[in-house]
């Protein structure tokens, strides 16, 4: 083997996303196809598509958690409109509001505070009553989410 062919990379490189062969004159760092545009001007970007697909399980999980919290928030709003601010445990069970699915829980002075997106539910000690209060702790700068 002579010195000129010593450092030549012989195996053909392919794109990590679509598997098409990369040009022979591409750099050793290139792992994806270059960005191309179709006749309508829509870009074809293998690198972005690859990383978007790689993070999809995390995005799907966060989307389901967010959807669940928004559904709980709408059920709490409906509960307030139909029954009022003071509710019983039976009312919470009827509207399928599980306190354990809260974002945050705190216990202060014997009362338990269950924080949801727009509301906090306060457990009264030694009673079956809960008070629902509105708060903006988990919304965007205090605005409605």
Explain how this protein is built:
- The chain is an alpha+beta fold and 145 residues long.
- It has 2 domains: 13-32 and 42-54, no CATH class; 57-142, no CATH class.
- It has 3 helices and 7 strands, in the order E-E-H-H-E-H-E-E-E-E.
- It has helices at 46-54, 56-82, 89-94, and strands at residues 36-37, 43-44, 86-88, 104-108, 111-115, 119-123, 129-134.
- The strands form 2 sheets. A 5-stranded antiparallel β-sheet has the order 3-7-6-5-4.
- A hairpin with a 3-residue loop joins strand 5 and strand 6.
- The chain starts with 35 loop residues before the first strand and ends in an 11-residue tail after the last strand.
- The model has no long low-confidence stretch (mean pLDDT 85).
Number of helices: 3
Could you tell me the number of beta strands?
Answer: 7
Structural class: alpha+beta
Oligomeric state, counting identical vs distinct chains: single chain
The helix content is 25-40%
Distance between the termini: 67 Å
List key phrases describing it.
single chain, 2 domains, two-stranded antiparallel ribbon, 3 helices
Q: Briefly, what is this?
A:
The protein has helices at 46-54, 56-82, 89-94, and strands at residues 36-37, 43-44, 86-88, 104-108, 111-115, 119-123, 129-134. The chain is α+β, with helices and mostly antiparallel strands. A hairpin with a 2-residue loop joins strand 4 and strand 5 (111-115).
Task: Draw up the topology in text.
Layout (H helix, E strand, L loop, with lengths): L35 E2 L5 E2 L1 H9 L1 H27 L3 E3 H6 L9 E5 L2 E5 L3 E5 L5 E6 L11
Antiparallel strand pairs: 1-2, 3-7, 4-5, 5-6, 6-7
């Amino acid at each position: 083997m002579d010195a000129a062919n010593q450092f030549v990379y012989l195996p053909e490189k392919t794109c990590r996303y679509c598997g098409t062969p990369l040009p022979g004159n591409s750099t050793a760092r290139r792992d994806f196809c270059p960005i191309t545009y179709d006749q309508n001007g829509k870009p074809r970007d293998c690198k972005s598509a690859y990383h978007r697909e790689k993070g999809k399980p995390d995005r799907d999980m966060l989307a389901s958690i967010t959807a669940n919290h928004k559904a709980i928030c709408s059920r709490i709003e409906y509960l307030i409109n139909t029954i009022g601010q003071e509710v019983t445990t039976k009312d919470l069970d009827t509207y399928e509001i599980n306190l354990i699915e809260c974002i945050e829980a705190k216990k202060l002075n014997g009362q338990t505070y269950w924080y949801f997106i727009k509301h906090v539910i306060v457990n009264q000690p030694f009673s079956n009553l809960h008070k629902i209060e509105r708060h903006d702790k988990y919304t965007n700068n205090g605005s409605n989410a």
